[in-house]
UniProtKB/TrEMBL annotation, chains A, B:
Cofactor: FAD
Alphabetized UniProt keyword annotations: FAD, Flavoprotein, Oxidoreductase
Gene3D superfamilies in UniProt: 3.30.465.10, 3.30.70.2740, Vanillyl-alcohol Oxidase, Chain A, domain 4
Taxonomic path: Bacteria, Bacillati, Actinomycetota, Actinomycetes, Kitasatosporales
Domain of life of the native organism: Bacteria
InterPro entries in the record: FAD-bd_oxidored_4_C, FAD-bd_PCMH, FAD-bd_PCMH-like_sf, FAD-bd_PCMH_sub2, FAD-linked_Oxase-like_C, FAD-linked_OxidoTrans_Type4, Oxid_FAD_bind_N, Vanillyl_alc_oxidase_C-sub2
Domain FAD-binding PCMH-type: 44-223
Keyword Secreted: no
Protein name: FAD-linked oxidase C-terminal domain-containing protein
Amino acid sequence: MGACHADGMSELTTALRGQLPDDAVLTDPDILGTYAHDMASFCPAGTPAAVVLPRTVEEVQHTLRTADELRVPVVPQGARTGLSGAANATDGCVLLSLVRMNRILEINPVDRIAVVEPGVVNATLSRAVNEHGLFYPPDPSSWEECTIGGNIGTASGGLCCVKYGVTAEYVLGLDVVLADGRLLSTGRRTAKGVAGYDLTRLIVGSEGSLGVVVRATLALKAEPPRQLALAAEFPSADAACDAVCRIMAAGHTPSLLELMDSTTLRAVNEMTRMGLPETTEALLLAAFDTPDPAPRLRAVGELCEAAGASAVVPAEDFAESELLLQARRAALTALDRVKGASMIDDVCVPRSRLADMLDGVARIAAEHSLTIGVCVHAGDGNTHPTVCFDAADEEEAHRARVSFDEIMALGLSLGGTITGEHGVGVLKRRRLAEELGPVGLELQRGIKSVFDPHGILNPGKVL
Amino acid sequence: MGACHADGMSELTTALRGQLPDDAVLTDPDILGTYAHDMASFCPAGTPAAVVLPRTVEEVQHTLRTADELRVPVVPQGARTGLSGAANATDGCVLLSLVRMNRILEINPVDRIAVVEPGVVNATLSRAVNEHGLFYPPDPSSWEECTIGGNIGTASGGLCCVKYGVTAEYVLGLDVVLADGRLLSTGRRTAKGVAGYDLTRLIVGSEGSLGVVVRATLALKAEPPRQLALAAEFPSADAACDAVCRIMAAGHTPSLLELMDSTTLRAVNEMTRMGLPETTEALLLAAFDTPDPAPRLRAVGELCEAAGASAVVPAEDFAESELLLQARRAALTALDRVKGASMIDDVCVPRSRLADMLDGVARIAAEHSLTIGVCVHAGDGNTHPTVCFDAADEEEAHRARVSFDEIMALGLSLGGTITGEHGVGVLKRRRLAEELGPVGLELQRGIKSVFDPHGILNPGKVL
């Protein structure tokens, strides 16, 4: 199915243009190239046959019907901020970009739902619901660019998850165009519902391999008070992980609980001149968005001190709180600059194993003589070891790739998962088989066949 | 597949006993009869060939392998407190009761998880985790009897859902014995994870039709403060529904928000002599489990008054709060006594349509000259219209059945679902097709075939 001949291509574009406006089908090779991949490193991208930019459900249906008939692969795309290559082109494919379907169709404060098209940018939705006193929690780092459709495809998370969970928990119902062009409606507008198997949740995180989401009904929360943060400095990553365990075991539910290791802190300092303490081996940020966060922050500060924190700095006000969080927000960009390129892993472990995970990553970094900075959504046990490397140095790039894989194996050995929130894409396919085991993999393949018998939807991704 | 000949039966029990202890296979017809059905009305139960009561995963595997080879249907059961007939016997089936697999294997306060066997009773788990300062929210009415396996099978809810969601949101990972006896492990022990399609969520709510859950990893929350309630009396159901909408639109997140109509109030009074106000047409109960609930209760009380409440009674202390909630807990038993039998529906609508739903149910009751009391998990829009009837009066029982069905149709017409938390079972199968539509139904059947190619698992349920 992968390759596509010149004739096939023209047959494809002719068929597509039959029911799509001229500006919805792009075939200029230079333009196609700019759509060919997402933000993942080490993920090869093929040469697409066309980019289709539909504005309506019917246009998506026509595109899929056409591709299915001609057995042409279709790769659905949002803003291509993904980190696993799930949106990368395969040779001869149609890149189906949903970015023009970007309307917010409804915001309902009584039912606490929003109905949106897939191309709505996360930040646009977040701000729109805020105006109604509502809150759409999922906040991936790329929230100013990434689309809700992309978030659903990868089941993405963010800083909020320790309290508010991931995208999956906010998707109530979906309209999905199937591989053969038929329209499937899943789920509901109601707060609860158990009618039949949960196809909604099956689609979430399926990276466009089961169908193309064209409309989503999302659950919203009431907008909480602004969060207030504290920072705690630790003489070792172990001590910081111990603090995380104490905080969670004591029954706290912070709105944010983030850990940065010394490599990350140095990189952030280098880039921002924030003057973070250079001798600190780990920094923990905790925040609460309750009406009266001060007593909770005090209690968390005391737990940090009990775990060996060398300093605890509670924010005096929201402005100071924001300043503390900026260090965390700058982390990935800063690590990217260390050696020019970086590769961000996404291994989630039970939070009781966080210290073992960080020890193991440090060992892997030393063994391969690599710089690996680790940011952690500590409340979730979701680590983002970020391997810094010089892309021009082939040998170093190879070591980076190997260490990336060893980090996944380490996570699995600690009872974790190879991906907490970034998805499988091309990058983690091999390790997925290991995590799922043969029985799970066989069932997943069976489900794929039910939804997409000709295998046209994002082939070579996930499974 | 349904029926089973005398020879088949003895071949079956011989094969079962080959690898099961004597006391794990029951065939005495009198005993089998006591296992034949759950608590749903109007759901026929067949005659089982055997009851199997395994104590280990291997015993479940042997049972399923045997049944699959002999093409004998298997009906998994928990405490049989279900309300949709999902646990009812089909002719010649093996009733696979998981009640003896009732160990709590792990409670981990740092990872906030519990690992349990399916036969653990909900209340047993709830109390066990409380001792660690933890909280397992799902609280179906039958929580003192129902099992976690049954809760997972039906994706059950409870009073807590307005704030804490349903069972599905607390299931992180499952061990599942497939129809052919193979063991599938799904999901994770971690707070997050997006590795492959979400098979965990697919199993939850599948009523034993995709596999038999033999172990579950459950997410826990930190134990919240005790909840404090208020009661508000309204001159009409409409006014009470208006209050619900005002409360939710104002951004409150109560830990409980329950509505009872006048029929229910009268029945509760009759049974308990609680002295609830007889002239009240609807009673709303709201509670908060935040550290300082008083200001929130005051605000909610004011919203109730603005919506026309004739009286607002905040509890002075926790004991008084419990007393208010007892009225709600007594509701279903009380309605059951009105005419000797009752049939509880479970239609969930967007909460903005609650008033229309209650109006419609009152109209249906009048049209059929029936008593229908309505309890509502109002924060979820999840109504439980309970049709009271005299089971000895065939004509009245028929009208009860018809009205039950009309209530589902009404819910669908209001953008709702036929089941918020009780499941489909046998009772709602016909209406399920309507809710899912032909495309959804076809995909659900396809998934069923992937998991259970010979169709031995709980045939005739759900789909």
